[in-house]
Write a structure and sequence with these properties.
GO terms for molecular function: porin activity; voltage-gated monoatomic anion channel activity. This protein has one helix at about 15-20; strands at about 25-35, 40-50, 50-60, 65-70, 75-85, 90-100, 105-110, 115-120, 130-135, 140-150, 155-165, 170-175, 180-190, 195-205, 210-220, 225-230, 235-245, 250-260, 265-275. It is mostly beta strands. The chain has a 19-stranded mixed β-barrel.
C-alpha cells in the first residue's frame, strides 16, 4: 500500500488513542497464541458488573488474505475476510454475522500516494451506503465521510476533518455528528521513541452549547511500564498503569474519579493480556 494520507479514520486517531485506548473499567482477561503457519488463536473473557461474556477467535493469514472468525458465549459467529491487492493498491473487506443474517458488510479501500477512497455497503436487507475520501500526503490530509440509508432515504452521518502532522506532533480539526460537534486536538511527542506524549482536545457541541476540554499524557516510567492520565473540565480524572509482565504480556490497571462529586464511587478496571 502507498504511504499517502491514510484512511479518513486515521484523522485524529493519535489524540483519540491517547485519551481512550487501554482505559477500561471492567475486568478483562485475554490469551493469545501464534503458530509458524500464520494462525493466531485468541480467547477473551469480560466481566462487566454482574454480567460475564467472552469469545474465542481465530486469525489465519495466507499470502494476501486474512481470515478472522470469532464465536461468543451466545454462539454468535462474526467473520471478517480481508483481501489485499485483488486489484492494484486496494483492500477488500467482507464481514458478516451468524445467525444474524441481516448483518453484512462489504468494503473496498483504494490507496494512492495522494488520495484514499473507501466505499462500503452494509445490511443486505435494508442497505446502507458509506463512503469516505481523503486527500493529501503523510504530512497534510483533509477528507470527509458520509453514510446514507436507502430505506429511509436519509443521511445517517457526515463528517469532515483536516490534519497536519510530522514525526514530533500532529494537529487535527474535525466537524462531526452531522455538523453538531466541532473538535480540535493537538498531540506532541516528548521523545524520539514516542513513548512519552502530551495531548489536548477541545470539543464544542452546538445543540447543547456544551464545551469539553481534555488534557492528557503518556509517560514511560521504564522500558516495561507506562502511565497515562487525563482530566477534563467536567472534573473527570482518569489514569492507568500498564506493565509488561513478561514479553508481549500486559497487565493494565485503570481508574476514574469525579473530582466534582467525590461522594460518587470511583470506577476501576483490570485487564490482563497474555501472549505466550
Amino acid at each position: 500500500m502507498s504511504k499517502g494520507p491514510g484512511l479518513f479514520t486515521d484523522i485524529g486517531k493519535k489524540a483519540k488513542d491517547l485519551l481512550t485506548r487501554d482505559y477500561t473499567y471492567d475486568q478483562k482477561f485475554t490469551v493469545s497464541s501464534h503458530s509458524d503457519a500464520g494462525v493466531a488463536l485468541t480467547s477473551s473473557a469480560v466481566k462487566k458488573g454482574g454480567l460475564s461474556t467472552g469469545d474465542i477467535g481465530t486469525i489465519y493469514k495466507y499470502k494476501n488474505t486474512v481470515f478472522d472468525v470469532k464465536v461468543d458465549t451466545e454462539s454468535n459467529i462474526s467473520s471478517t475476510f480481508t483481501f489485499t491487492d485483488i486489484l492494484p493498491s486496494t483492500k477488500t473487506i467482507a464481514s458478516f454475522k451468524l445467525p444474524n443474517y441481516n448483518f453484512g458488510k462489504l468494503e473496498l479501500q483504494y490507496f494512492h500516494d495522494h488520495a484514499t477512497v473507501t466505499a462500503a455497503v452494509t445490511n443486505p436487507q435494508s442497505p446502507s451506503i458509506e463512503a469516505s475520501a481523503t486527500f493529501g500526503n503523510a504530512t497534510f490530509a483533509f477528507g470527509a465521510e458520509g453514510g446514507y440509508d436507502t430505506t429511509t432515504n436519509s443521511f445517517t452521518k457526515y463528517t469532515t476533518g483536516i490534519t497536519v502532522r510530522n514525526p514530533d506532533w500532529s494537529s487535527t480539526i474535525i466537524l462531526g455528528d452531522m455538523g453538531d460537534t466541532l473538535k480540535a486536538s493537538y498531540v506532541h511527542h516528548l521523545d524520539q521513541l514516542k513513548k512519552s506524549a502530551a495531548v489536548g482536545e477541545i470539543s464544542r457541541r452546538f445543540s447543547t452549547n456544551e464545551n469539553t476540554f481534555t488534557v492528557g499524557g503518556l509517560c514511560a516510567i521504564d522500558p516495561l511500564t507506562t502511565v497515562k492520565a487525563k482530566l477534563n473540565n467536567h472534573g473527570k480524572l482518569g489514569a492507568l498503569l500498564q506493565h509488561e509482565v513478561i514479553p508481549k504480556s500486559l497487565l493494565t490497571i485503570s481508574g476514574e474519579i469525579d473530582t466534582k462529586a467525590l461522594e460518587k464511587h470511583p470506577r476501576f478496571g483490570l485487564a490482563i493480556s497474555l501472549k505466550p
